Amino acid sequence: MRWFTRGDLDGFFGLALDNLVQLLLIDGLCRFVLGMSPDLLYGRVLPGAAMSLLVGNAFYSWQAMQLAKKTGRTDVCALPYGINTVSLFAHVFLIMLPAKLAAQAAGVADPVRVAWQAGLIATLASGLIELLGATVAEKVRKATPRAALLSTLSGIALGFISLGFLFRTYAHPWVGLPVLAVVLLTYFGRVRWKGGIPGGFIAVALGTLIAWVSGLTPQGPMPHGAGFRLPIPVLSDIWDSIRGGHLVTYLSVIIPMGLFNVLGSLQNIESAEVAGDSYATAPSLAVNGLGSIVAALFGSAFPTTIYIGHPGWKALGARAGYSVANGLFATLVCLTGSLAYLAWAIPIDAGMAIVLWIGLVITAQAFAAVPREQAPAVVVGILPGVAAWGAMLAKHGLRAGGLGSPGRPFDATIVPAFERADTWITGAFALEQGFIFSAMCLSAATVEIIGRRFGYAAAWLLGAAAASALGLCHSWAFTPADTTFSLTPAWPYAAGYAAMAGILLLARWCTEPVDGQGH
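Given the sequence above, the corresponding structure tokens read:
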């Protein structure tokens, strides 16, 4: 297998755009929510992100080439890798912003630096959790029904990828819909453009051209770059964060998010195996954790993850080169200060249809890769992820309406207003916290119920009860600008899951099969 193929160019456009979106989010949230100075953002955070992306992408490309050599195949696709979107928002709104507000209230001279240091220790701890998780993840993977692993991933793909970009497509339809047509024609229609031009390049070029002609881009004056910055270790700031007690203060967010990253990466490895590329679990997760550790050591407050979407990139024809190219692109963007120029010149709308397509492929895979009778279990596993995205959308709406600020913080007074509109927002907030656990347990239990293995189904539900009792599931509390894990026992949910398990254990004696087959 060659290091770079024609399909790698398509894969690069899609994955690089996805990573660019994350970098733009970091840029916007750090500057406008946290108030970071250009020196801190462009001199520490983005170079640290570059180091983490380069390390991971280089390894996963090498890993793909090794698998190709071992199997003699030429169609091996590297695991996609990048900054975790869910963790990005969690670190900003649940760790860094509260740390900044607490530092301001205490009269600290530089509260923004305190917020950044809190993000560093959270990222370092997340990487360590991922490293530890690598030692047991394969056992979890083997014990979990495939429908549960893939459907949980599909919930994330459908909510956090497909629907978000679908909104954006229809917000600027004169750009989004023509680009979507190119993507659907290229990848679902399975055609090749004359002249051998990659479909991903055509989509991005067409979208950029329409955006410029229509006046959507550029917005504002041409930015001034921050100049070239080398990544520098920030060990003293990490030590200051440890001494400041941030590790203990935000443990209720750090532990669940670290476990979330482990399980999410595990599901992506399973998804890759279904698509034909079987990677060893332990080294894949270990390097994922190492990437987050490198991020923290060099100044990035945001952990990395094995990305969702391997089957989609593989279907594009991407192999190993797209991952290397993505790492080099992210490094160049972060170290040269050119991120602002790219955001100014190339709209996200120009290539978002590629990422939307990836979400569609992941969702479709969950149904195609399991027996037909397990389709209901896939739907059950998708719902918590979509619910979590809906809860996030509701909170974005509240913040857009002026809530979530020190003067108007989130609190219990918002709940009655939602309920009067027949929106049971506390249920959404409960589903959001630890949804990857509840989705897996509910989907796995449904698989076992379909197979009339009621004892196994009860065991999965007791697992959900235990996660709730430990505060890893459904345990939430208001922060000034968000909702967060409280890491306290969620007893009502633990009791509910235990009751479900009890009913299933009694089913052997209280029910009889309607088709004549035994339990």
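The longest strand covers residues 476-479. Try to locate this feature in the token string yourself.
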